[in-house]
Amino acid sequence: MPANSPQPHKIQKIAIVGLGYVGLPLSLQFALSGVIVVGLEVDPAKVAAINSGQSYIHHIGAQAVADQVATGKFTATTDFSRVREVQAIIICVPTPLNKNREPDISCIIQAGQAIAQHLQPGQLVVLESTTYPGTTDGELRTVLEKQSGLRAGTDFHLAFSPEREDPGNPDSVVSQIPKVVGGLTPACLALTCELYGQALKTLVPVSSCRAAEATKLLENIFRSVNIALVNELKVVYGAMDIDVWEVIAAAKTKPFGFMPFYPGPGLGGHCIPIDPFYLAWKAREFGQSTRFIELAGEINTVMPEWVVNRVAEALNSRQKAIHGSRILILGLAYKANVDDDRESPSYVLMQKLHQRGARVAYHDPYVPMIESARQQGIWTGTRSVDWTREVIAAFDLVLVSTAHSKVNYQELLEWSPLIVDTRNVTAGLPATPGQVWKA
After folding, report:
1. How far apart, in whole angstroms, are the C-alpha atoms of residue 321 and residue 312?
2. Local structure of residue 286 (DSSP, 8 states)
3. Active-site positions?
4. Residue 5 above 50 pLDDT?
5. Which of 47, 166, 216, 430 has the greatest CB tally within 10 Å of its CB?
6. pTM surpassing 0.85?
């Protein structure tokens, strides 16, 4: 394009639906890039926090929110009629599994219904929530068209662009993460690229919404399968008295053909434990089986039971049983250095130990209390115990479930008589014989 040619009209104002772990950082990035952002959120408490310059997500500082609110580039509301003001709407809502471990896209449908009532010709709707292929140009499109009376690809634009967030990773910067985008039509794709190009450095266009949806599933299924592999090897090598962590450390010195993955007590978070089920469920509609993916899921699902059995072995070595023992779960969040406890394997461990008669508590510097909104049953309202010698020493066993860097593991070894370590945090630290059990 010649230098004196007029530049394309930029999208100046957008709405982002859902101000959680994906929507909030994305909102801040667009605001930093000069785009006016209206955050649409059903939780009034989150709206109030944003508009007062506060953050409710640990790794997102309050100052980052306050700065953008002060400039007028970012505001939050529960009023979905403000969709009428914007040129593009980005949907970032949860997509969990239901009680039958099947996809639950009800939040997407509800967001679509709320948007459709105010959808205007020429607007762009982008879905970022992880889902199965066909959601955007199927279920979401149907809802938007039926309630608005507009046609996707003709009257309004429709696209899918999967979120790529890595909470707690300081090297994960929203603007630097390549963004996959897929549109319903070439025009939809072009407008979506224009939208994200204002805030993100690298765009990766693909041929369709379904290709973009499938890309996200591949990324997390890849991780799920490889984590299942090292989890299985952990059990096999453990039977051979081989430390899988030592093996992985040696293997990753190979400069080609190997990528390290690490075992744990199970899978957690909003993607890896869930995404394989989304694809497996959708594949059945096409008469296809996903045996490899489902096997990986089975292996990862049984890891908490294997860990509990290791807890039993460790206690038995001290002539104790799980029943009646005081056990501390160290780390409630699903990964290190975040406050996100969605799908955390720690809850599964707590439940299994409780069912076997243990008196269970937890310590997590990022999760001071288990909130009722997270629907953790009997644990709702439970608070993290204090980190003191007197408190920690009173437990018969400490089970390390999450490797938070804020925890002083040298103190743990000094204070706790018995430790089951699922994250290798005690490696290289002085321990007494029989004090630490790997799991």
Report:
1. 6
2. T
3. 271
4. no
5. 216
6. yes
